[in-house]
Amino acid sequence: MSETRKSRVLCDVDFDRDGRQTGFLRLFHSSHVSAYGFLPIPIVVLRNGEGPTALFVSGNHGDEYEGQLALCGLAQSLDPERIRGRVIILPTANYPAALAGNRVSPVDNLNLNRIFPGDPDGSVTEQIAYFISSELIPRADLVCDLHSGGSSLLYTPCSLTNHVADPDLFRRQIAALRAFGAPLGYVQGRAQGQGGNLTLGGVAERRGIVTLGTELGGAGAVSAEGLAIARRGVRNLLVHLGILPETEREPAEETRIYGLGGQDHFVYAPEGGVFEPLAEPGETVRAGQPAARIHTPETPWAPPAEAVFARDGFVLCKRQPGRTLRGDCLYVLGGAFTPSG
Fold first, then answer.
1. List of residues 6+ apart from 234 with CB closer than 8 A
2. Which residue, of 205, 226, 260, is where some domain finishes?
3. CA dist 97 to 33, 55, 155, 287, Å?
4. What values do phi and psi take at 70, rounded to 5?
5. Hey, what's the torsion of the CAs at 257, 60, 114, 149, to 10 degrees?
6. Are residues 291 and 217 in the same domain?
7. What CA–CA distance (Å, rounded) separates 291 from 310?
8. CA 13 to CA 27: how far, in whole Å?
């Protein structure tokens, strides 16, 4: 990412001004229905003097709602007079996708969380990624990117972070994971290749910034449990950073942390058809245990294909839609975690 290239996105707020500011990122986009219009991506900034900065993002994927609601609540309730430092809130980062309720943008069909650090001269989604990478992340001491399973997955609500090579950064990320206070958390590696390098969190980690994520539910709906965890967690992170006083901390049970490493943590559909789940999120499973049957009602005399779990683990999430294609992810398992990663 070249630091000399300037984002084309205009911003209504002054990041260095005290008080509460609300406004929009103005991403100019010419379309059939709006020749000279802009996409108004809402942003909220609260500041009270010098101190640490927390960046909270949701709507990175537009069909993930718990984080969006939690950050709307934070934007409405947080009193700038009670904080020390700065809080930046971006509730619908991929604004077109959020309005459409889609994982990817309906404008350019791009997944925001797979194209960081973006391009200031690129498509709409690439410009959003570049603004976040160049203007928001560098200002932060902690980045929290709130996700859930979206339309295709259903998660046991949890928080997450990445295993990073820098031992001090990894220690601080685990501390933030525990401070968030979700009942479950996991530490992920690079089980699906280097895609993590193209995420919002990957940009922050390469800058040495503490980064935390969540998976708060899914199935294209709002999980009441996941929303409650998010609302508590974002405030507890502000306490953890020293932006809010200790008296604002909300009690939470100790986080049980799992690891998510290689491909044996994933179960994929061996064939296309109708997915019959044989385990649910929150269950503990064993290696060799049947995970799913894939039926083909269009060929009713054919026996179902079967998928099995390749390892012992805790079911973090399962696929939601019944119809599936070969290669779709059916389950993700958490395994044993050690502080060394």
1. 56, 70, 71, 74, 144, 146
2. 260
3. 18, 20, 21, 38
4. -60, -40
5. 50
6. no
7. 9
8. 14
pTM over 0.85: yes
Residues 213 and 330 in one domain: no
**Residue 340 scores a pLDDT above 80:** no
How far is Cα 341 from Cα 186, in angstroms, rounded to an integer? 11
- 292 and 219 share one domain: no
Contact 185, 255 (CB under 8 A): yes
- 129 and 190 belong to one structural domain: yes
Residue written as tokens 């984002």?
Answer: 7
Structure tokens at 173: 């990320």
Whether the per-residue pLDDT at 6 is higher than 50: the answer is: yes
Residues 165-221 pLDDT 10s:
999 999 999 999 999 999 999 999 865 655 568 999 999 999 999 999 999 999 999
pLDDT tens track for 283-296: 999 999 999 999 99
Give yes or no for a contact between 83 and 53, defined as CB atoms under 8 angstroms apart. no
108/176 same-domain check: yes
> 209, 137 in Cβ contact below 8 A?
yes
Q: Are residues 314 and 218 in the same domain?
A: no
Same domain assignment for residues 167 and 237 = yes
Query: What is the extent of the structural domain holding 319?
Result: 266-334
5 occurs within a structural domain: no
**Other beta carbons within 10 Å of 218:** 29
Domain containing residue 304: CATH number = 2.40.50.100
Q: How far is CA 11 from CA 78, 79, 103, 139, in A?
A: 21, 22, 25, 15
Domain finish residue from 229, 260, 291: 260
Let me know whether 199 and 312 are in one domain. Answer: no
**Listed residue (23, 54, 97) closest to 244, CA to CA:** 54
